[in-house]
Amino acid sequence: MNNKIKVLIAEDEAITAMSLKIDLECHGIAALPPVATGKDAVHLACKEKPDLILMDIRLNEDMDGIEAAAEILKHHNIPIIFMTGFTTDTIKKRAIKLHPLDFLEKPLDMNRVKQLIDNISLEENTL
Fold this sequence. Notes:
The chain has five helices and five strands. By secondary structure, it is α/β, with parallel strands linked by helices.
């Protein structure tokens, strides 16, 4: 059912990124190779135009996940789920301004992620 959904994972922790990719693929969801920087997330999102982005807020290098998401949203209307292991009110307010599909704290509840993806799949099938 979800094999048409393509997900971009932006996560700087390699083990977490690969675990997410494997979890998604086990649920029949296509996952692009994970990226660890905001710049790479922007580049891959513009190139591949995924159906969903799982965006960590803290990424390697200069651009955080919120900045990367803002840049992506300038060019493409792609639903974004923010993920974080560390949140403050300031971070959450910055992220919420971008109207994400959800804001999840780590460790992720894969049942919740799958539910959100299923909703995207259902919306695409009704268009």
